[in-house]
């Protein structure tokens, strides 16, 4: 009786606290925690590094578009030997030294192109967040599934031992003529099915270990011991807060910035009909050997000019074409954003419902496990009193093991649902900082 009660207590508490327990040290290395695995995967991810590089490229492209509005100064020379009239070289008079200054004052198409690229860069910044979330989801899923698979394998080894004792018991009874041989075959089939699960889980553990190795960069032997833990608790969004959760969705925020970029592009295209104004200045140092003094009444070696360059578009088919293109691109962004918002709202509500359903299933699985453990205690007590056979005891143990496996599956499915909800509502960065 004491053994049965201790077995039930230890078994149920071990399952119920599976994700929060910490394994003992293995081979002198501390157990890898979920937080450590996520941190390593984020630091090791090439996909995340690529997303960051693309964001940096977008920011640099925006910087390039801004340069015309900053002071631009260059110096050089159009040094040449003149024979006769000093003709221009590349539209510039021959000179020993030439300095040019330019700065755009009014150029709305170019300014809005810069603004559009800034908004595009912001959308790629959200893409960095999405890439990070993808890495976190893959790592957490692999980690939790590996912990579940290893725990399930331990349970199956116990089941296999019980199934083997049942097979041996039935063979002895069949040999003594107390049972039919079909009962032996039935018990052997049960054992074979358990062994099949053991083989399948062994392969699954190998694949998950390799995947976690690639994600974290840790050697496989370092992953032999992981500290299983549950996901942090999160508040489920209520019906009143679903809209807030939708608006915080990374994919909607990214598309919102993309729409702003196209809106800025349309604004710039429309202002292509406006005049543009540049501040310009130029200095030239002329040489006497270019014969300037022979063709001009007054020759002065130092020459400087400062003024504005005004361009007024009179007839520009390209401008109207740019406006039409930008308008159609903005319409596409509006429709895409509206569709995404509807889809995200439905998906968020569905994820919330799924999470509640998975939580209910987890409760059922927990109670079924408790019932199986209590039944095993009852059979153990009857066995100790000689009122139950060894087959009854081991079968009860098998049933308890199967309910334990079902509880592990339900708990893993529930945490997957919570993980998906975290990703959809943009809360992964709050949980895994």
Beta-strand percent range: 5-15%
CATH fold-type name: Outer membrane efflux proteins (OEP)
Uncertain parts: 1-28
Could you give the count of β-strands? 4
| Structural domain count | 1
CATH class: Mainly Alpha
In helices, the fraction of residues equals 55-70%
Count of alpha and pi helical runs: 11
Structural class by sheet pairing and helices: alpha+beta
- Most strands sheet: 4 strands, antiparallel
Give an account of the 3D structure.
The protein is α+β, with helices and mostly antiparallel strands and 433 residues long. It has one domain (2-68, 112-272, 338-431): Outer membrane efflux proteins (OEP), CATH 1.20.1600. It has eleven helices and four strands; from the N terminus they run H-H-H-E-E-H-H-H-H-E-H-E-H-H-H. The protein has helices at 2-16, 34-44, 46-66, 108-175, 181-216, 242-247, 250-270, 292-295, 317-384, 390-424, 428-431; strands spanning 72-76, 97-106, 276-285, 302-311. It has a four-stranded antiparallel β-sheet, with no helix packed on it. Helix 1 (2-16) runs antiparallel to helix 9 (317-384), helix 4 packs antiparallel against helix 10 and helix 9 runs antiparallel to helix 10 (390-424). It is elongated, with a radius of gyration of 37 Å.
